[in-house]
Design brief:
six-stranded antiparallel beta barrel, single chain
Length: 350
């Protein structure tokens, strides 16, 4: 494949369909089921996902935890406002960050947050204009961040989040993400318990979501787009659960594109998932041959995004765009706090 056009993944999305607030009941969001083999679409409530799962399947969940990564402060000496978004911890108290406004924050610039509770110095500018920043504080970093930081909601969400936990999955465990693995937001603990009682295995993997996943594709030829590196970890137990499922002819169903990218990155050429940790820059688009994943639970994504391209790799571009057109027509809610989609190769409920 020599060229894949960004515009091939465009669809028209009315602004009012972008969900601004999470639903009170996580599992009451809507669920569009797409058969990747036939293109058939059906409409449901998310908690009905259990009817599409069968004993012997393995659900793969990303248990990363979003940190309150948005810091509002000022430049020392001038008092000018500055916003810092923590992307990735490099070492110790040095973080790779996204800074606004960036032009004024050259190496050597000093920053102050919370009236001096947290101070920082810009060390250098790295790729994409990101800044390496060294932070200075007394006490425990996590407590300082929890006190001063805000949840890094995507820019298309303009409403203030009333409860920080609503931008976390109920199984979030390991801190490190700059964005939530949003497909997992639909699960309640009660629903997960029922799923396990049905005989479905649950494997937890960790991928700390960076903003690279959400960066717009700027090149018209998709193949020239470069994905940013994200850290992932697969435990021995998770690898065993996934590999045993494949060996027994069960389905590996990833919850979210991040879980998908983790297992595909961690597997060898024969589709056997290896335990361990690493960084991945995997970019999945049409033409990709999935080695591990059989089905995908995901949210509805931005037009021309790498996420729409990943779903299109699984179900075909035309079928995915047809399903999105149907979702718009049926007034589904889009993006992080929106509704869900289940892409499967099976005909119906179990």
């Amino acid at each position: 494949m020599t060229e894949l056009k960004k515009t091939d993944f465009y669809f028209d999305l009315p602004q009012e369909l972008i969900a601004q607030d999470p639903l009170e009941d996580r599992s009451s969001s809507r669920l569009l089921v797409l058969n990747k083999n036939t293109g058939a679409v059906s409409h449901h409530v998310f908690r009905e996902i259990i009817d599409y799962l069968r004993p012997g399947d393995c659900l793969v969940l990303n248990n990363t935890k979003v940190i309150p990564a948005r810091l509002l402060g000022e430049r020392e000496g001038t008092g000018a406002h500055v916003e810092v978004l923590l992307l990735k911890r490099r070492e110790g108290d040095v973080w790779e960050t996204l800074v606004k406004p960036g032009k004024k924050c050259r190496p050597g610039t000093r920053l102050v947050f919370g009236g001096g509770i947290l101070k920082a110095e810009v060390l250098e500018t790295v790729e994409e204009g990101n800044r390496l920043i060294h932070f200075e504080y007394e006490g425990i970093w996590e407590e300082v961040l929890d006190r001063l930081g805000e949840m890094p909601l995507p820019p298309y969400i303009t409403h203030k989040l009333q409860d920080k936990n609503r931008y976390q999955t109920v199984y979030a465990k390991y801190e490190g993400s700059a964005a939530a693995p949003t497909a997992g937001l639909h699960f309640t603990q009660e629903l997960l318990t029922k799923i396990e009682e049905k005989g479905v295995k649950i494997a937890y993997v960790t991928l700390h979501v960076g903003l690279g996943t959400f960066r717009p594709v700027k090149e018209e030829n998709v193949l020239e787009h470069h994905m940013h590196s994200e850290y992932y970890q697969v435990t021995e137990e998770a690898a065993r659960l996934i590999n045993d499922t494949k060996a027994a002819k069960g389905r590996v169903i990833c919850v979210g594109t991040t879980s998908c990218r983790t297992v595909e990155s961690a597997s060898d050429e024969s589709g056997v998932v290896q335990a361990g940790c690493d960084n991945t820059e995997i970019f999945i688009y049409p033409g990709y041959q999935f080695k591990v994943l059989d089905a995908l639970i995901t949210n509805f994504h931005l037009p021309e995004s790498t996420l729409v391209m990943l779903v299109s790799a699984l179900a075909g571009r035309e079928q995915v765009l047809n399903a999105y057109t149907e979702a718009v027509r049926e007034r589904y809610r889009f993006f992080s706090f929106g509704d869900a989609m289940f892409v499967t190769g099976d005909d119906g409920k179990c």
